[in-house]
Amino acid sequence: MLDKEDQQLLNMHMQKLKRERKIVVIWQIFILIGFFGLWELASRMNWLDPLIFSSPSRVYNLLLEKFSDGTILTHTWVTLIETLLGFIIGTLLGIILATLLWSSTRFSKILDPYLVILNAMPKVALGPIIIVALGPGYVSIISMGAIISVIITTIVVYTGFREVDPNYEKVLKSFGATRWQCFKSAVFPATLPVMISTLKVNVGLSWVGVIVGEFLVSKVGLGYLIVYGFQVFDFTLVMAALILIACIAAIMYKVVEKIEGWLIKHTT
Amino acid sequence: MSFLTLENVSHHYFSKNDYTKALQDISFSVKEGEFIALLGPSGCGKSTILSIVSGIMKHTSGKVLLNNKPVEKSKRDIGYMLQQDYLFPWQTILDNVLIGPTIQKNVDEEIKVEAKKLLNEVGLNDVENQYPSSLSGGMRQRVALVRTLITKPKILLLDEPFSALDYQTKLMLEDLVFQLLHAYKKTAILVTHDIGEAIAMSDRIIVMRANPGTIAKTFEVPIELRNEMPFLVRRHPKYQAIFDKVWEELNKNEEQKA
């Protein structure tokens, strides 16, 4: 029976894939346990100064304590909202700016050198000025989260607009389409995959902006906890905040990745 | 009476500090219902003529009249079919076909029915809700043809519409397009570099020369070949004679260049 043989081959292939997956997961777990184990060990044996590097068990206990009294939730929540808002505002503003650039070639030519400067400039350096201008509060921090991604989004999306095959526009123009109609029906939808791929980059950038913003001015947030822990020499707190940031940023990245997959499936 | 007239049309392409004369003193006219072919080597400006006739590009000098009106004012009477289908991958086949009506803001039930009817006519059944990626090259080009025909253009501009297809599909589509255009009595201009295709499909062949693009010579396709299906024209006893004449003219142009 040929069918049976084929089935067997397929089974073997699937088993091979399964085994491969298992090996990868086992190694991943091993690295995770190894890292924390080594850290704990190094701290207890005084290979690392426990005052500076703390230890996983202390971080764990601190997190438990802070979770049970609820204070850490407020900090996490504030940072999360700031990052999300910064991310959304930065991305949308970037797309809107790219659209404006596309709408007038002359306008984009005029702005070109300024965009280059703004893009090259490290945006976090603007932090103090933003804080002075917008006041020491959420608005400044969210602005930091947004400003860091807006220029690069503008440039990437605008380049995407320009790289759309001009023949799509030609088809539309042959039906008498206006420039705006061409944008709506061809240029914008054709660039959606580019915009979606900027999302993943922007979510990481917004974290940078927001954390730096919190470093500079805040009474609450994970960035604040890091600075506060540093000032009072409580490095367990610093480590706890770092670990939380790493986890939440990773979850956020994964969510954006899921949204990206869904968008690509439903728009292209 | 002539339907489309080009009078001393010239066109320049400008680059940073240079220009190329793409077309020089092009004059010809097309009668209603006539099918003409523009034949020539690449770079002779044949596609530029289509862009000018379609009103997408403005010529630098001369006159282009469609029904005695400047061509910029009659964009809606023109259907343009490109080398590749350029269907929008994110839209269904039906939405792709209705793109012209959407732009011109007259989508209604009637035109949807018409779209489905036309799709059936080109041999595409039950594809309205599929996406272009699930169709073969030949099927996609047929969709592009329907997209062009749905706005009921008075004149069709075909810019090497078969050149990206495999030979067998190309022959089949030639017959299909020929049949449809004759059934609907459409005027058409076909741009091609394939001598056989020009003879098989058109009533008149305008041979062009490059650098700058000018008209070298015009050939009337023998009356016996005009109403035959393109596939049969290639086997007609009179086919070889006209092929040779056109071939000779094209070669003459090549030699002059060399």
UniProtKB/TrEMBL annotation, chain A:
GO cellular component: plasma membrane
PROSITE patterns tied to this protein: ABC_TM1
GO biological process, one term: transmembrane transport
Gene3D superfamilies cross-referenced by the UniProt entry: MetI-like
One Pfam family cited in the UniProt record for this chain: BPD_transp_1
InterPro entries reported in the protein's UniProt record: MetI-like, MetI-like_sf
TM region positions: 21-39, 77-102, 114-135, 141-161, 205-228, 235-253
Cellular compartment(s): Cell membrane
The entry's keywords: Cell membrane, Membrane, Transmembrane, Transmembrane helix, Transport
Name of the protein this chain belongs to: ABC transporter permease protein YtlD
Organism: Ornithinibacillus bavariensis
TrEMBL record, chain B:
Family annotation (SMART domains): AAA (SM00382)
Keyword Nucleotide-binding among record annotations: yes
Keyword Transport tagged: yes
Recorded superkingdom: Bacteria
InterPro entries: AAA+_ATPase, ABC_transporter-like_ATP-bd, ABC_transporter-like_CS, ABC_transporter_ATP-bind, P-loop_NTPase
GO molecular function: ATP binding; ATP hydrolysis activity
Domain ABC transporter: 4-235
Pfam families for the chain: ABC_tran
Origin organism lineage: Bacteria, Bacillati, Bacillota, Bacilli, Bacillales
Keywords: ATP-binding, Nucleotide-binding, Transport
Protein name (record): ABC transporter ATP-binding protein
